[in-house]
Amino acid sequence: MSVLDAAYNVGEDYKDGGTAGLARRMDRNPTTLSHELRRTGTAKLGLQDAVKMTVMSGDLRILHAFAGKCGQMCVPLPEGADMDADDCMRRLSAANSAFGRVAAETCDALADGTITANEAARYRRGMGELVTAMHALDAALHARQVASSAAAGFPEIGGAA
Questions:
Q1: pLDDT tens digit string along 119-146?
Q2: pLDDT for the residue 12
Q3: Spatial contact of 38 and 12, defined as CB atoms under 8 Å apart
Q4: CA Rg value for the chain
Q5: Angle, in degrees to the nearest 10, between helices 30-38 and 3-12
């Protein structure tokens, strides 16, 4: 689906009055937003308004269409996660990014049916970064588990199998 079609559908499907209801919630003129979504004349939907539509409607179709056009996908963050303050979440994000790079390198290497030495080297470098990121995540999770056990008054007794 195109980003503009997704935006149109987000407006039309808004639960409290369609495009006009969403426009009022956004403090926008309903006619103007309708023209932007229908691509009437020279009216164009702005990026900030697309973000506002997504946030206010809770409808992620614009976001997913945009990500798809860029060859990406969206992964939701856990509720209430403070990425900056939470070492586990930062480590998870780094591991996720490293995996994405490995996946991209793999797809690039396989695209023409042959794998060159340079492509293999980029893949291996990416795998090393992914393994490093996963070890860092494991260490952060273990530290959190130890701290949680200590806070609960339980001694650390190995790990569950």
A1: 999 999 999 999 999 999 999 999 999 9
A2: 96
A3: no
A4: 23
A5: 140
